Amino acid sequence: MLPHISAGLRRSAAAVALGAAVALAAPAAPAAAAPQAAAATPTAATAPTGAWAAGTRAYLVITTPGDTSAVRAAVAGNGGTVFAHYDAIGVVVAHSASATFATTMRGVSGVQQVGATRTSDVPADAYAPALPPTPTQSATTLTESDRWDMTQIRADQAWAVTTGSATVKVGVLDTGVDDLHQDIAPNFNAADSVSCAYGRADTRAGAWRDVGTHGTHVAGTIAAAKNGKGVIGVAPGVRISSVRIAEPTTSMFFAENTICGFMWAGDHGFRVTNNSYYTDPWMFNCPDDADQAAIIEGVRRAQAYAEGKGSLQVAAAGNSNYDLANKTTDTSSPNDSTPVSRRITNACVDIPTELPGVVTVAAMGRGNVKASYSNFGRDVIDIAAPGGDGSSGVYSTLPGGKYGNMNGTSMASPHVAGVAALLASVNPSFTPADLRARLASQATDTACPSDSRCTGTTAKNGFFGEGQTDALKAVGGSTPTPGTYFENTADVAITDNGTVESPITVTGVSGNAPAALKVGVDVKHTYRGDLVLSLVAPDGTVYPLEDFANGDSGDDVVKTYTVNASAEVAAGTWKLRVRDVATQDSGRIDAWNLTF
Question: Where is the signal peptide (predicted)?
Answer without folding.
Answer: 1-28
